Amino acid sequence: IVYSINDINSINTMGIIVSVLSGLICGVYLFKQKVSKIFWYIGLMKITFITGYILLGFIPSNIILIYIVGLFEKFSLGMETIAIAVLLAKLVNQRYTATQLQMFAFIFIIIKFISKALPIRLIISSIGWSGHFIICIALLLFGMMIVKKASKTYE
After folding, report:
1. Residue 113, SS3?
2. Helices (H) and strands (E) in the chain, counts
3. Are residues 138 and 130 in contact, defined by beta-carbon separation less than 8 angstroms?
4. Is 155's pLDDT higher than 60?
5. Cα(18)–Cα(53) distance, rounded to whole angstroms?
6. CA pair distance 101, 89, nearest whole angstrom
7. CA 46 to CA 78: how far, in whole Å?
8. Is the pLDDT of residue 1 over 70?
């Protein structure tokens, strides 16, 4: 399966716009709903686009499908970013919000940096992309169960 660099770049460019719009939608939605509920919706969206990536592995080069899956991923990413920011704002002491948010953000950046490193590449090279995406779905379902359990504590 081969997609041109122009296709990937246009998905990323349109993805920025989609992410900003979805972040605004999430922000408006969070005025009326609980944070844990939005994480469930985001989890279901992530399962949907991860399944789309698995299907892309079995379908010959389909430019429309890669655009749909890629933009859907960017949509959920924008919502996820705002939901995490709101969750962190609820977890910190209001007197020390800026300091604590910076510490949480630093922790998330370190985790993201480490997770993109060598171990993930080794896993993908040994089990392939489809296996990697199946593991992602399993971990996502586990995370959704944690959100359900923890929502009683943090809402």
Report:
1. helix
2. 5, 0
3. no
4. no
5. 18
6. 7
7. 12
8. no
User: Among 60, 74, 59, 68, which Cα is nearest to 22's?
Assistant: 74
Give the span between the Cα atoms of 26 and 75, in whole angstroms: 10
Token couple for 76: 């959920």
Are 147 and 87 a contacting pair, CB within 8 Å?
no
Angle at 73 between CA 67 and CA 76, to 5 degrees: 140
- CB neighbourhood size of 148 (10 A): 12
For residues 72 and 12, give the distance between their C-alpha atoms in angstroms, rounded to a whole number: 11
Give me the percent of the chain exceeding a pLDDT of 70. Answer: 94
Q: 């923890």: which residue's tokens?
A: 150
pTM above 0.85, yes or no: no
What 3-state DSSP class applies to 119? helix
pLDDT in tens, 73-119: 889 888 888 888 887 777 777 777 778 778 877 887 787 777 666 67
Q: How many residues does the chain have?
A: 155
Ramachandran assignment for 128, one of left (phi > 0), alpha (psi -120 to 50 degrees), beta (any other) = left
At 134-145, the pLDDT tens digits run: 988 998 899 888
Amino acid identity of residue 77, one-letter, is L
Residues 93/34, Cβ–Cβ less than 8 Å:
no
